[in-house]
Specification:
By secondary structure, this protein is mainly β. The chain is built from two helices and eleven strands; from the N terminus they run H-E-E-E-E-E-E-E-E-H-E-E-E. The strands form three sheets. Strands 3, 6, 9, 10 and 11 form a five-stranded mixed β-sheet that branches. A four-stranded mixed β-sheet has the order 1-8-4-2. Strands 5-7 form a two-stranded antiparallel sheet. A hairpin with a 6-residue loop joins strand 9 and strand 10.
Length: about 190
């Protein structure tokens, strides 16, 4: 009990210090506008981009900023490669973006994957059913998505550069994450 109280106190002090420096913490919200943030999960994903460089943040476009990260940088073939994506509103008003869904894929964020030799990796053919839904995020909020990259692309023995993007809903401008490098190694059985 004492440890939990001390941890909470330290977290509170740290958050106040950070808030005084940046005056901004971001709240993760779900599609029903409920706060689902977990400030104790150790990821620091609620911090501004400059204080959370592990988020691999891209530049904000039309008030939307995108983060892409993986649990690790190296995977073996057949191992799940789950991307964590944050779509964040860095403006002072509610901002739109488009959720693009393709049947058979996990979520609304799209990816560009290229090999170390700079060849674009084509996505695995999926169903032809596509839908684009308008969405928005309140000021200071962010939506979180988990997507399986290995379901969307054939990734074999190589090093890859991955970038996530979403349409910001304004003149077909896209918000992009920074490029993230990961390696897939074939394992002989």
């Amino acid at each position: 009990m004492k440890t939990r109280i001390l941890t909470t106190l330290v977290l509170y002090c740290c958050l106040n210090l950070i808030a005084s420096e940046t005056n901004k913490l971001f709240v993760t919200i779900n599609e029903w506008e409920n706060n689902v943030s977990d400030f104790t999960n150790g990821t620091n994903e609620y911090l501004p981009a400059k204080l959370f460089p592990a988020g691999n943040w891209g530049e904000a476009k039309n008030g939307i900023q995108l983060s892409l990260r993986f649990d690790k940088t190296g995977y073996t073939n057949g191992e799940p490669i789950t991307a964590t994506i944050l779509v964040r509103n860095v403006s002072s008003k509610r901002m739109p973006y488009n959720k693009f869904y393709v049947s058979g894929r996990d979520g609304p964020v799209r990816f560009v994957v290229s090999s170390a030799s700079n060849h674009r990796v084509e996505a695995v053919p999926m169903g032809e059913n596509c839908s684009c839904m308008g969405a928005d995020i309140r000021a200071g909020g962010q939506n979180k998505f988990l997507e399986r990259l290995d379901k969307e692309f054939y990734l074999t023995n190589d090093t890859y550069f991955v970038q996530a993007y979403v349409d910001t809903g304004f003149r077909r401008m896209c918000a992009e994450s920074a490029k993230v490098q990961l390696t897939v190694t074939n394992v002989l059985k």
